[in-house]
Each structure stands twice: as structure tokens, then as C-alpha cells.
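Input record, target 12 of the design panel.
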């Protein structure tokens, strides 16, 4: 797939955020997310799972001297805050703030995974002045959406919809298998013992006839005979007239021998593993 992005630009986005403080906050977050909160990193990217191991949110946690700021890169932070509040015991030294808005910026490069960037929270209130002062050129919404798909960044209510685990979605490096118990840990440990996953996320592309619409969960077939379903569409966007890129969940057993599959009413589509994904 030919790249449609340019290098040297920035991902700027305003996210819901909340602050957490208290001497028990590291232990508390360790029990509810997939990453290790005790490694003294300035920023930790992590997953919040269901008890059965399905991905519910991708979080980014910024560590400061007296508090931490949590933003939901993908996920409903109001739902997360409510769950966190229900998990706090009266004896816990933990204080959650109200949810507020916070701008985040990160230089992006199509040649490296999104998690290898250096994200930063912007304290300045005048964003336009901040960008001008630093000579930052940011993606518009369309180009940002393209970059996120090429990075296979799962999206709430599309790839993140209560079914898929973070390993299928290429987020293996956001799961720490050596730390203690956390929400969904038993499922993650069981999946790690498998030689491979049953299905994996892929970036797909195609050129489609005018007037045709793609629906979420549309079946993908092995070929035009349509007797073998290999996966389904989870999301997509149009760009450059009738060209389309998107994400799909594909059964692993068909990925080794095939790079293209068939979509009814549209024809052949090409599949590619994203540089933003890491699997078992």
C-alpha cells in the first residue's frame, strides 16, 4: 500500500483528562490496567480491560511529582472514572479530580509505531500562539484519521467494542505479563500461552465504484466465490476520490498465504500489517 502521509507533522488533539493523587495511586492503577506503574516512567501507555480481557480503553498516564494525569486516547473517561470510584475503598489514599479537557501533542512519523513517539501535555492556554511559537505544523482531522488507520490505532465503538482483546488489536507491548494481578489478567496469561492468535487486526485498502457504501461488520471473503468468510470490516475512510483505507479483523490462518481478499459489491481489497501493531 502506497503511503498517503507526509513526515514531519504533529498530532494535536484535545482529550478528556482527570487527575489522580495519593500514596496508593500507583498500586490502584496497577490493579486496573495492563502496564507496570512502578517503572518510574514519565509517561505510561496502557490498556483498561473487561474482567474477561476485552479492550475497553487505551489510556495514557503522565507522572508528576505529586499527582498523575490520565487521558483516554480511546475510551469513555466518564465510564472509567465511575468504575475507578467504585473500586476505591474508604481506607485507600486516592483522590480523583473532576474530568477536564487537556491538549496533547506528539510528533508523528509514518515509519515508526505511534507508541514510540514522545507525547506531551500542553499547559499553555493559547494553542495557536503555542504552535506558532514552536513552528509546529499539525494534521487536520482528515489527515489525522488517515494516520491513525495506517497505525491501526483501535477506535472506540469500532475496534474497541467489548469483543476484541489487546493482543488481537496489536497492543502486545502495552501488556506487562510479569506484574501482579490486574483486571483481565487471567485471560491475558492464557492467551500468551497460545502459539498464535485466532484473529488479528489489519489495514486494508481498495478502490470502490461510485455510489456503493460499506457497512461496519461487512464480511470479507477469501475470494469471489464467497464460500469462505475470513473476517470483517471494523472501520474505514475515503480519501483521494474513490480510494478507501480501513481496519479489519482477519482470521489468522488465512494471513500467511494471502495478502488480498474479496469484498462483495466492491471486489479485491489488499491487506497489510501495520507498523503500529505487535502480535504474539
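The sequence produced for target 12 reads:
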Amino acid at each position: 500500500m502506497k503511503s498517503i502521509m507526509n513526515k514531519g507533522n504533529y498530532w494535536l488533539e484535545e482529550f478528556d483528562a482527570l487527575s489522580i493523587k495519593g500514596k496508593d495511586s500507583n498500586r490502584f492503577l496497577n490493579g486496573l490496567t495492563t502496564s507496570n506503574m512502578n517503572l518510574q516512567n514519565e509517561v505510561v501507555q496502557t490498556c483498561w480491560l473487561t474482567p474477561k480481557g476485552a479492550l475497553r480503553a487505551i489510556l495514557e498516564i503522565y507522572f508528576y511529582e505529586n499527582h498523575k494525569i490520565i487521558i483516554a486516547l480511546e475510551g469513555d473517561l466518564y465510564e472509567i472514572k465511575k468504575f475507578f470510584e467504585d473500586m476505591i475503598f474508604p481506607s485507600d489514599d486516592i483522590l480523583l479530580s473532576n474530568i477536564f479537557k487537556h491538549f496533547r501533542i506528539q510528533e508523528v512519523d509514518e515509519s515508526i509505531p505511534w507508541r514510540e513517539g514522545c507525547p506531551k501535555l500542553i499547559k499553555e492556554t493559547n494553542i495557536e500562539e503555542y504552535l506558532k511559537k514552536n513552528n509546529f505544523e499539525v494534521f487536520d482531522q482528515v489527515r489525522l484519521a488517515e494516520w491513525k488507520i495506517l497505525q491501526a490505532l483501535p477506535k472506540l465503538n469500532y475496534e474497541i467494542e467489548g469483543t476484541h482483546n489487546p493482543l488481537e488489536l496489536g497492543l502486545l507491548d502495552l501488556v506487562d505479563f510479569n506484574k501482579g494481578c490486574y483486571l483481565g489478567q487471567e485471560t491475558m496469561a492464557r492467551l500468551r500461552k497460545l502459539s498464535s492468535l485466532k484473529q488479528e487486526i489489519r489495514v486494508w485498502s481498495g478502490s470502490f465504484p461510485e455510489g456503493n457504501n460499506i457497512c461496519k461488520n461487512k464480511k470479507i471473503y477469501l475470494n469471489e466465490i464467497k464460500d469462505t468468510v475470513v473476517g470483517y470490516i471494523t472501520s474505514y475512510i475515503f480519501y483521494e476520490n474513490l480510494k478507501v483505507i480501513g481496519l479489519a479483523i482477519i482470521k489468522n490462518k488465512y494471513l500467511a498465504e494471502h495478502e488480498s481478499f474479496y469484498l462483495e459489491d466492491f471486489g479485491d481489497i489488499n491487506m497489510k500489517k501495520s507498523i503500529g501493531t505487535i502480535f504474539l
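The longest strand covers residues 9-21.
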